Every structure is written in C-alpha cells, then in structure tokens.
Structures
1.
Amino acid sequence: MKYRKSTHLASVDVDAIIAEKGKCELTIKSAFYDRGVDVSGNKTDGYFLHFEEAGFKDMVVNSGNRKKIANIVRELKQCSPVESRNLTNWVGLKISLKVDPNVKMMGQIVGGIVIDTTFKAPTQVLDYSAQEKKLRDCKTLAELQAVYTTVGFPQTALVSVKDEMKAKLTPKTDV
C-alpha cells in the first residue's frame, strides 16, 4: 500500500501509518478550500489539510471531519462557533486520525478517515503571551487594528487586551 498512486491521504494510508507507528497524529500546517483539485484522477471541489510532518499527503476533509475539527478548535481556543470554522484557526492543531469502517458516502458504507475526538494532545495548551505583547506594544489605534487583525483569531483573552489598549489609545476629549 505504501506505493499506491493516490494524490491525497486515504484510509489505507492511515491504516498503514497506524500499523507502522501505532498511531497517526498529524499537525495542521494549512487548511484551505479549493476547486477542481485532482484527487486521484477526479476533479474535486472541497476542503483540504496540509500537514507539517514531512512525507504526508494532503487530506480531503469531509463535512463530518470539518465539524469535529471545529469543535476541537472551539474547545481549545475558547472561541465562538463561527470563529472555530475559520480555517486559519485550524493551523497548528494536532489531530489524530483513525479509520472507521462504517463511514458512509452517498448512502453506501465505504469506510473512511475520521478525526479521533478522544485524542487530546498534551502540547495543545495554547500560549497567547506573544500575541498579547504585540497588542500591548502598539502606540496608535491604527497600529492596534493592524496587529489585532494579524493575531490569527480573536481569542477571548486577547479581545479584552485589545479593548483595554483601544481605550488607552483613544484620544480623550473634554466636553
């Protein structure tokens, strides 16, 4: 199976990885939507993951797995449901993949890759101190706005820092 000619990660690949390493844990390097992607000979529109670990193919992410990732992101980053579906918020997330023989496609049981929602990576306690420092170092409202939009996601703790800095940087007017 190691030498299959598939363009994207498939359940047989995940099975092979688990057989070899005992688990299939990967870190999301990027998540994106694309159209007309060649997925093993078929043009496909969809969501895709690219992993940090070398040698792994991109993965097509079905709606069930997108929902699972969004739920994990919402829990770990303590963000809103809308923010958890923002693909940029998925970057850096470590996920565990497994094969579920009961996955259905178009009403047929075909088996497939699923996100293991019982997996909790110990390194996923996220540290926002660097982003907080960037916000606190701002000298103008324009700079604050620019820095805040590049933080990556509006984490609850960072929203309060942004609001605090906004109040501090807003010119006071005497009425």
2.
Amino acid sequence: MKIKGVGRSLINQVSRQIFRLQNITKEKFECPVCGYVGPFRDINPPTGLRRHACCPGCGALERHRIQYLVVNVIVREKDVAGLSMLHFSPESFFRGIFSKMFGKYETADFDAQGVDYHVDIQKLPFRSETYDFIFASHVLEHIPDDKKALSEIRRILKPNGMAVLPVPLIAEKTIEYSGPNPNEAYHVRAPGFDYYERYKHCFSRVDMFNSDAFPAKYQLYVYEDRSQWPTKECPLRPAMQGKKHIDVVPVCYA
C-alpha cells in the first residue's frame, strides 16, 4: 500500500518532531530551503562521520544549502523565466526547484535514467552558445579530462551565461588519482583549494562564494574530522587539520 499526500506529510512531520525531541540538546540551525528550524542530522558515509549535515525537513545537505543560497543571489536581478538551463547529473533535490525557476529546464547525464540527454561532458553534442545557465554540482571530480569538460561547458554557454560548478574541497592541493575510487563514489581526484584556478583559464570571470559569506544559522560548513585521513577507504586523501571546513561555490561567467 502506497502512502501519498496528506499521509506522507503527516509521517514526515511526526518523524521531524521525534528527531527534535531525541536531540533536544543538539545545536539548532535553520534550513534556507524549506524553513525548518532545529537540529540537523549527522550522516556517516564511507568517507567518515559528518556532523550537522542533513536537514530533517527537506534532506538538504551542506552543499545543497549553500548552492541554493548562491543561485538565489546570482539570479536575483535576472528574468530567470526567460533563461535556459542545463542541469548535469541532476539531484532530485534540485530538480523541482530549478524546473520551476527557469523558463527552459533540461537535464543531462552519462548513463542515469530519467534525464533529457545522455552525454559525455567531455564531448557535448550541443551547439555552441545554447544555454544561459549550467549547473553541475560535484561532477568534475569524476571526470578524467576535466579541462576538456570545462572547455565544453564554456562553449555551450551563451554570452554572459553563467555556470555553477562546485566540487568537494578535501585537500589543500589537488591530488590526481590513478583511477576512480569506488569508496569515494568513483572520484578520480581529491580537489584542493587550488582546484578552481583551472576555471580561470577557461572563463572570463570566476566569482567565489564560501560558507563565511552567509549567516551561520544556515550551517554551511562541513563538520568532518579529516585528521584521520588517509584511511583504507581513502588511501590518497591527505590529513587536514580541524573539524570544521568551509565549502566554496564558484560561479563562472562566459
């Protein structure tokens, strides 16, 4: 029996309330996406525990929250309904938001189901200057020839178009792997804080937004103990000091 509509909404409300009561002493935050206020869930992926990561209201992670805020800032004075958008490896979380926001919304992936185009981002089939806005979150760390992918993204952007192309920053300096690591969702590199320098060789301008640019109540940091790296699962990740790390979202202009 499927649970729909009001029933699912009620279950979600009860689940959130139980979580609040079970974590009454936990630090409270506000989700900029859904408006939930209260403690955020910790998550424990193969790469290690991340505290205060997930909004119990809508499921937004740290990267989703900061990306949502950045997109709203950069389109604030634009007629978004008249813009065309291409969304690579589209997260279900953002599909509903972007499809309502942009006048023309299309999706692409290499082999995922339910997208408009199956493409290789290193060799795109689209005509030059096709899209006003491109969004590819945590994609380029999977791509062997990322420089070619960046060149292709730049090619299909219209004049004055924008591309939001964040990757997970998990090292001081970028480390290239010899092959994809299945424990890191098949990443082929560990992007460092120097990684976005590659973008500056391709785009006319690159603006950076980091966790410090927005109110702390939204919890846009990655609470992760990286001093334990390297591990068996992530043998090439270097150790990093601190348990609270900034995220950075680059906005690239054609």
3.
Amino acid sequence: MIAGSGVNLPLMRKLSATYETSRLPGKIVIPDSIGSAGAIKAALDGAIDLGLTSRPLQEREKAAGLKQIQYARSAVAFAAHPSVPVDSISVADLLEIYSGAKRQWPDGQTIAPQLMYKGDSVNAILVSQIKGFSSAINEAWHNKYWQVHYNDFSMAEAIAKLEGSIGFTDSSFVYLAQGKMKLLQLEGVAPTADNILRGAYHLEREMYFIYRDPLEPSAIAFLDYVFSPEGRRIIQAAQAIPVARLANGNR
C-alpha cells in the first residue's frame, strides 16, 4: 500500500505498473490522494507501507519515528487548458490574473484561474520564488475570486476540462496527462528537467517516500526498482529528475 500527495501519484502509478509487469507477481495498491499530511499520519499509524510527500519531513515528524527517501525533483509549472491562446506567461500577467485585474486572454476568452488551498506546499514555493505572488493569491483567497482545490487531481481535472483555465501543478503531472493540459513557459523559459538542472528555471519541488522501520521485503524490493536504471528512465521520461539513492543519505 502506497499513498500520499496527489502530485506523486501519476508517476508512482506508472512506476508500479511497469514494476508489476516486469518484476514480481502481486499488486501494488495506490489509492487516490490523501495529501502529504495524510501520508504522514497513515505512515505513523502503520496503515500504509510507503507514504508519498511533496515536502521533506519536519523535525518533529522525524522524532516521531518517520524516515524519508527523496526519489525525484520536478518543476512546478503553470498549466492551461489547450484552448488558451498563449504558450508563455509573464510574472506581470500572473499577478494581474490572480489578483483579478486581468480577466481575458488575447482572443477574448475568459480567464478561469485555479487555486490550491492555503496549506498546500506548492503555494510556499511560488510565494518564495515569484515576487508579488503572495499578495495576488492572498487577495484571491480573501475575495473568493477563483475556484480553490484541495488536491492535485482536482486542480488537473479543472484545467483539463474548463476552457480558458490556468493553474499550477508539477510538470511531470502534465506530461503524464498526455495532452489534456498545456504547459506554459514562464517568462519564455520552459519548465523542463534540463532547465532546472542548468539553473534556468527555479520553480521546483521534491518528491519523497516516507516510512517507518522495519520495511516489508516487498516495499524494499519496490524501492530498489524505483532507484534502478529502469526506474530512473521512467522518472526521466515524465520530465522529472531522479535523485541518486546514496547521494542524499538514503538507505
């Protein structure tokens, strides 16, 4: 049983499906998103074998007995419905869109911004890296301008279905959605793994497994697969960046 942050799930389901067909018989169960907080609670309770988070553990969570293994990094990206007539968005436009000052795309289509709830970890990344974004989304939350989502699947579904929509998620989530959403460049820079690695794109977040010892042999076998050359290729194909197991102190 593997459960947690929704942004990890498309990639984790891809990894588990390939693992099941090429490795051992059996079934890896990955339910719908329970969030990073839900994964932490479930891992502490022993309800799941591996949890998935999109942030590192806090010291108090480590003190409670949890351990973490980072397995990937991914670009935090702005994505839009395929009907949106732009391929790149500027910071100035983003601030106007989320504050409610800009309401139409260049073709006259109504802009439909999507927000994550205040406690989601992606908000902290955007606020820390985009000057002025904090004021824009705080105004949006306060005035209840736009639809607020409580998991990444809800955000992705809205972007994919609602013409004129724009929101933010991980680039790997968009790549694995196979054309249902459009990735937007930010100030002309694409949210790709290569651009993160060369320092051209600065919005990114980390993906972790969390667990309590002792791990079941089946969980260890799956972790071995994720960090194997085959697992790394799957992560890279989703435009995420695999993390070396030993490089970050993983077991």
4.
Amino acid sequence: MRGKRIFILGSTGSIGINTLKVIACFPKDFSVVGLTAYNNVKLLEEQIRYFKPKYVAINKEHIPYFQKKLNAKKFRIFDVENELDSIFKETCVDVVVIATRGSVALKPFLSAIRCGKTVAPANKEALVIAGDIIMAEARRYNANIIPIDSEQSAIFQCLNGSNRCELKKVYLTASGGRLFKTPKEKFDRLSRKEILKHPRWKMGKKITVDSATLMNKGFEVIEARHLFSLNVNQIEVVIHPQAVIHSMVEFIDGSVMAQMGIADMRIPIQYALTYPKRWGSPLKPINFFQLKNLTFLKPDYNKFPSLALAIQVAQEGGTLPSVLNAADEEAVESFLKGEIIFTKIYETVERVVRKHRTIANPSLKEILEADQWAREEAKRIN
C-alpha cells in the first residue's frame, strides 16, 4: 500500500517547515510531491534537495535560478502565482497542505477542492472571505477539508463520530496574545519587536499582530462558522492563557469534550495527514502533574475591539468578511512598516468595514471586488 502523497503550499513558512518535520518522521508513509514558496529561495532549495519533490512552484523571477542551480530534469517547476491549477489535476497528489498566509490562498484552495483533493488548511483567510463558496464546492466535488489550525483541528477532533444535531456550541480558546496583561493605554508605547513576541507560539509577523489585537480569533469565529455549519451564537471565545486546551465542544446533554495537548503545531498537522487514523508521535505528551492550573476568562471586548468587530462581521456575512480581511491585511502591513501606530490598525479596519455596503450571497467576482475596494480604502485612510 502506497503512502500519502503530500503537496505543501508555503513550505518555507512555519507551518510548512513543521509539516515537513512530520513527514520526515514517517518516510515510508508519506512522500512530498510538491513544494511552493514565494521568495525564500535558499530554504526551498534545501527542501528540494532533501525531499525530492516532483513539482516545485516559485515566484517566476526565481525560476531561472532553480533551472540553472538544480537538475530541473528531476522535477517540474511552475509559476506559483498562475500555474498551480495544472498540478492539482495530477492524480499523484493526495493531500494539499495550505500553509500560505493571507487571501492569496483562496485561488489554490478552490483549485485543490475542484480537483477533489483532501485539503488541510492552516490558512484561515480563504475560508473567512469565501467560506460559503469553498464549502459548497467541497460538497460538489466530494473534497475533504481537514483543518490544521489548532483550534479548528480541536473542534474537528471533538466532533469526529458525533451527530451534528447533538451539538450545542463550541468554545474557541485563545491564549490572549502578547497584550493580554498589558493595559490598553500602553499599547502604543510598545515597539513592533515587543508586540511580535507571542507568549506561546512562534508564528509569522502578520498572524502574531492579529493575535495581539485578537482579530485572529475573530477570523477563527468566521472560519468555524463555515467549517462546522454553525450559527455565530453557537461559537464562544474563551481566554485560556495556558494554551493546553485548544478548543471545546458542548453537546445538548451538557457534556463537554475538550482536545488537549502541548502547544506544538506538529500535533494537528500530523492528525490532518494521518486522518482518519492516529499514529504515534515523537513529541512528549502533557505532564498533568506539572500543570498548576487551567484558567478561563471572558474576552475584554473594550480592550480588544477587533474581536467584537469580527463577530459582528461574522453575523452579517456576505462581502463584509472579505472587506474585514483585506482591510486588516493592509493595516497590519502598514504597522509592520512603521507607517502607523498599533491602535490605528483597528481604527482603519473599523472605518473601512463601516463604510462598505454589503452584498448578500455574493459571487466570487463580487468577493474579490470587495477585497480590492477595501485594500484601496485602507491605503487611503493610512
């Protein structure tokens, strides 16, 4: 019996690197058939040499380098922005891991689904901006979506084997981010370097900033609504600083199931790759005797208004989630460039969202047009 053949979009980012670590632990059970990156040429080159994929996709300006530097006869190289569709049509791809961040993941996400592949997304933005379309296409093409994002993976695991009519609500846990213990009046006194120090996870800059504002948790509310066919009032955010419980599900009889584990992304990644089975892991389990306490708090929506805004957007739906995501991407980018202060991120996003005239049940074209409008509006405000 052959092993699963994995294609990783964004192999040089933290999720991509951890996915390759998991695969390396099971060389007889997994093979890497495709790797993509955008600009991290050096690391991608190292990954190609080690994992020997059949397909490689990179920013087109770097294609000549790989053709010259490596033996291109052993793999096919593509433009990462325009040529992924043709790869996903190949039968030698079983699972597509989407480890790229941002709305750029939407097109390859849809392409993989329409080719009937199993998709393992760590990216939440695609589901945020076009969740209704993605889930409808997944049903149409009989494609499986097995989430890697730790909170969504936890819910997926807790619901596995359960009757959905027995579900009452889900609890999305959040560590609280970098600013959990910081008074709001001090937010703008912190440097970008200080804000980028997440207390639990080592992540990319954009998602770390979103964790600090709790916008990331708001995105997860929208994501969970689509993944698990929930109403927004069935989703509750809980601050859990220890990050031991990754999310919980409450059933109609009052029972609550929680998925617990150490804070290591290799656990949900491995589960997504091995599903529906569980395999042994080299990672150390929780030592319950070292746990001093597990605490749960309600979010402070006044301190973190981005979360409240995202929940309102989730309730309205339509083109508004696309606008929320696009405005946030532009505002966070401006902050990371030193063009705006931290608290201006929310102010910019909120202004763009309030100005938008929502289209209900939008087409993909209308979603992308809303995305572009929001970016231009955010740039104008910044």
